[in-house]
Amino acid sequence: MPSDDYYKTVFKSPSTKVVRNRNKNSACGYTGCKSEESAGRPRFPVCASCKHTRYCSREHQVAAWKSHKAQCKRYQERDEAEGIRAALGLLTPHQIVDNLLEDFVHLHESTFDELANFIYHVNLPKLLAEQVDFSRVTVNVYLNYLPDCEGNPAKAFEIETIALKEVGSESLSEKVKKYRDDLKRSRQNDPTFIQGVLCSYHVAGYESPLQPTGLKTTNWVIIYKPHAQFKLEEEWNQQMLKMVQGGIVLRKVRDEEGPRKYRWVPGFLFKGDSKWTWKAIPPDLADRFSMNLPPVEYWGRQKITTFLYAPGATSAWVAPAGFLWESND
Ligand SMILES: [Zn+2]
Ligand SMILES: [Zn+2]
């Protein structure tokens, strides 16, 4: 079992831009160092000035200081300004919702990864039939703000719809295209990688003539080939949606025993004076909620060699919802 400390992820006030809890582990902030935190081990020490960037060692912090200095100052200024305005109640409702949106997306990052993978694969036959240009496919998540969320960033929005969209090539910025291509290049040796897809989250009702796109944030989702041993289940998709709506935050943790075995740990955010803390649901309680979570390796994130191929196809064929995979081996 990972140590108890691992579960204590602290968030600042709900009205500041906050959540630096990643479902992912932080990497060392020194360019050129490949070290990453791992679940169950203590986190890397954080820069005492900005409380943002982490380093695997004192040496790397010192080595990175020249390049970190300016960024460090920007983090501090931003957090201070936001903190003061939040403490004085000076944030506009728009800013509060904007901050909650950023936190909500970070918190549910793993869950949204699953949802995006699901919708991509479920729609794949249709997309193929329509000869869609896959490099221009994006995932759009439409959200409604829930004012009675009591500031809990994990349950501040309900999901209205999640939709795949093919955007015109002119609406993808050069930056987006470059990031997408870099992602592809960096994963070229990963047989499970399909593509990076830009995921954008929109909040309904926050559009204005000045800001026609409204409240919006984006992140990147990696689409993987489905694991041959599992089936594409609508039930799991529904469960993932319920998790988000219930404010349940999934974190992927690595078991101490066994070679790189990951599993989901569901948890809730608990409110303190000015902070939210993530805590795992005790396993017996999780059972009572009958949280039958899909295995982490549902999509091909680990090295797998078995895929199902349609006759004549060069890429893995994907089953429609409800289809039962039969393993090839
Ligand atoms: Zn390092
Ligand atoms: Zn710093």
TrEMBL record:
Residue ranges of domain MYND-type in the record: 28-72
InterPro entries: Znf_MYND
Top-level taxon of origin: Eukaryota
Metal-binding in keyword set: yes
Keywords, sorted A to Z: Metal-binding, Zinc, Zinc-finger
GO molecular-function terms, A-Z: zinc ion binding
One Pfam family from the record: zf-MYND
Name this polypeptide is given: MYND-type domain-containing protein
Organism: Hypholoma sublateritium (strain FD-334 SS-4)
